[in-house]
UniProtKB/TrEMBL annotation:
Name of protein: DDHD1 Phospholipase
Gene: Ddhd1
Signal peptide: none
Compositional bias ranges of the Gly residues kind: 10-32
Biased composition (Basic and acidic residues): 41-51, 629-641
Source organism per UniProt: Copsychus sechellarum
Family membership: Belongs to the PA-PLA1 family.
Amino acid sequence: SGASLRYSTGTGGEGSEGEGAGPGSSDSGGSGFSLAASALPERRRPGGGRPRYEVVRELGAEEVRWFYREDRKTWKPFIGYDSLRIELAFRALGSAGGGSGEPAAVEPVCVRSGLYEVDVASAESYPVYWNQTEKIPVMRGQWFIDGTWQPLEEEESNLIEQEHLNRFKGQQLQESFDMEISKPVDGKEAIHSLKLSRNHVDWHSVDEVYLYSDATTSKIARTVTQKLGFSKASSSGTRLHRGYVEEATLEDKPPQTSHIVFVVHGIGQKMDQGRIIKNTAMMRDTARKVEEKYFSNLATHVEFLPVEWRSKLTLDGDTVDSITPDKVRGLRDMLNSSAMDIMYYTSPLYRDELVKGLQQELNRLYSLFCSRNPEFEEKGGKVSIVSHSLGCVITYDIMTGWNPVRLYEQLLQKEEEELEESWMSYEERRLLEELYITKQRLREIEERLHELKASTISKPPVLKFKVENFFCMGSPLAVFLALRGIRPGSSGSQDHILPRTICNRLLNIFHPTDPVAYRLEPLILKHYSNISPVQIHWYNTANPLPYEHMKPSFLNPSKEATSAPEPESASAAPSPTTSPVMVRRHYGESITNIGKASILGAASIGKGLGGMLFSRFGRSSATPQTMEAGKDGPEGDDKKATTVGTPPLPHSSSGFLEPTVELEHRIDFELREGLVESRYWSAVTSHTAYWSSLDIALFLLTFMYKQDQEETDKSNLDTL
């Protein structure tokens, strides 16, 4: 929620939790802590501490804190802005429904950056933008466990609060809430007690309250420790605090959303429904950590919304299930729920249903977000899409409007051209001309009809928003484009595969061992097939070089020098640019290739340890040609060093055409391999490893915050 539990303990603060309490740790209230009386955290209050000798009164709305619990984990506090508004709605519900006896209708409270709503009457929270079967319980916290500041269960908390007010209301507090150390309760007798179902509460003074478990083990432990001379409170009591450690204020609110990111899933969603919601939550959480560390100076933030498009589609119903044999049923069902999506997409019958399903869901989410955040469009809010696996292909087709019918028309046109060139009789030629004229007439009529329709009904755009960045993760898009006939061009523009008018920036992210991922850059310029993708910076890299300043480098520099037929051509620059080359260090080879010997057998051992350590598995091998290149020794190195800055020749040493043309922007970005990572194991796991990566979270935010960061830096310079 973004709320932080900020408190400072006095002497014995943490040491008194469980450790110094001996065997009598309490098991009441879900706390599991035994706390000494000397640990009273300082209560943080924006307007300063309470005045001394304040009288006991009912808790203010700012002192109560609301909590939520996801996946049956611990209770998490709402931030002050959310908690205060929930509490005000709760009090409005109580006052409105008090007279009539019927619960009054109270508007749901929007919380957690607008992603969830809280129904105060049912004490539940639910997501706004996606469906979730499990409701998230919320709880009103009044009394809290010392140290953890976890709330007592609401039923017990209400009973304790009621008893506290009945007994002490109007009495003056003898201690200030801002005093770090309170007087020890050793030797003090309880002035008041309350029996609960499994516990009991002792008041030693107005603001010194302890909770004790009535379980048999706790009673025995208490008896033993008291006989040893320890007081009841210090041996097995859990100290309670009335009111939360931090007051709730409306100023403690989340930053405004300036950029929304739609996260689109790939195959397998039918097999594991709700997986994209969990994956998006992981990506959102890692992005929050990165935002706090690197972008905390910006007043806006990026919000991630899951796009679950698969579950609403009927497709063939259960036809495929009915024709599936029963043997190895589990494996077959898994394939039907995952790989079958690819077959559906290549089917002319179901492809449109998949495209329409994703398109409608994207537009629905955008319209819903804008209706709840009307200032988003007014202030120039931006939209990016992060797609995974097959989702990249469907998203691309929606943005570009690509349809297999176009491909079919192109094939027909090609056949017509081939027919015209072939020999045919007079009668055949006459009939062909008639067919050609009829088709042309049909096209003209269709165009006129479309014009008439367009004049009466303006066709809405496919997507209701302009895409700022399109991030592909583990994407097979390049293969689909290659099979559709897209070939490298002579221009280094992204427009060759995705026009900038549709999407400002295309970025292709992949793990080097992801078997589903392919590169896009060689589809734009052919010589980029031998230029390494840009390495994504590690999350904790200090002062990383900006991506736009990183120079391209060859995948196999040694290969470049040896593939030239003549010695003169070796003097050509080993780079696609005239700038010096940064030789790429093959990541992970020194360790992962040691395992290669055991797999490839004695033959690879015979090549020597050097071959194992310096050849990249799966990309290059120690061929005789490359081994000869190693014989050049220092002379060859000197020759290379003297020619780095020389202008390139019309043909580079790789055999490609003159590579002076560069890409306007790099598109392929590769995650770095771990040094001890097994490539065989990572080939299995890498396709689903993108969601929780801090490296990817930083990469995404770097591009999405780029303009905001530049504007902030500019304004800072102007101020200076």
